[in-house]
């Protein structure tokens, strides 16, 4: 058994330029296992113990305890083409401006803590994309994403 190794935290890996992240993943996984951008993101998500990985049963429990606005946000996420979604789409579905969603995000965070029993976990990753602002400096959009497992669990529950 080889005792040589390299340890790098997920946060440190994410802080590196994308090409260096890819090179490290190839070095770790081997050339044949070169991850696609989507699978590389999934690998990073699985390694982030605080990024919620909700099973279908947890998604059902989560959704059943949410209010109307929070449910609409989850429906937008589940109906997205991928695990990424636009904050502007959530705001439009609820009928508010993008900067008026703090209560919805707070509701999601509280509900997640209740369902998982973990106050450190988070449902939405906002760090991979920058927020978008209009010419007047108003916050108008942001791409958020949930873990692949969480996305598929909510899709199974909400998309007919």
Task: Give an overview in words.
- This protein is mainly alpha-helical and 160 residues long.
- The chain folds into two domains: 10-47, no CATH class; 56-158, Arc Repressor Mutant, subunit A.
- Helix content is 52%, strand content 7%.
- The protein has helices at residues 10-15, 18-29, 37-47, 56-64, 68-78, 87-94, 102-116, 148-158; strands at residues 84-86, 132-133, 139-141, 143-145.
- The strands form two sheets. The protein has a two-stranded antiparallel sheet. A two-stranded antiparallel sheet has the order 2-3.
- A hairpin with a 5-residue loop joins strand 2 and strand 3 (139-141).
- The longest helix is centred in the last third of the chain and has 15 residues, at 102-116.
- It starts with 9 loop residues before the first helix and ends with a helix.
Question: How would you sum up the global shape?
Answer: globular
N to C succession of SSEs:
HHHHHEHHEEEH
- Could you say which structural class the secondary elements and strand pairing correspond to? mainly alpha
Q: State the name of the first-level CATH class of the largest domain.
A: Mainly Alpha
Strand order of the largest sheet: 1-4
Kindly report the average pLDDT value.
84
β-strand percent reads 5-15%
CATH topology label of the largest domain? Arc Repressor Mutant, subunit A
Number of helical regions: 8
The stretches of 5 or more residues where confidence is low (pLDDT under 50) are: 32-40
């Amino acid at each position: 058994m080889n005792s040589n190794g390299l340890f790098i935290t997920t946060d440190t890996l994410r802080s590196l330029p994308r090409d260096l992240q890819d090179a490290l993943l190839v070095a770790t996984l081997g050339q044949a296992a070169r991850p696609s951008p989507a699978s590389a993101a999934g690998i990073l998500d699985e390694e982030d113990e605080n990024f919620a990985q909700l099973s279908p049963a947890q998604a059902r429990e989560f959704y059943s305890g949410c209010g109307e606005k929070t449910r609409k946000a989850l429906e937008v996420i589940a109906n997205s083409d991928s695990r990424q979604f636009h904050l502007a789409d959530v705001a439009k579905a609820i009928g508010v401006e993008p900067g008026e969603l703090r209560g919805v995000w707070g509701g999601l965070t509280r509900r997640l803590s209740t369902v998982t029993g973990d106050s450190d976990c988070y449902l939405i990753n906002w760090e991979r994309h920058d927020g978008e602002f209009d010419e007047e400096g108003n916050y108008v959009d942001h791409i958020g994403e949930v873990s692949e497992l969480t996305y598929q669990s909510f899709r199974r529950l909400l998309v007919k």
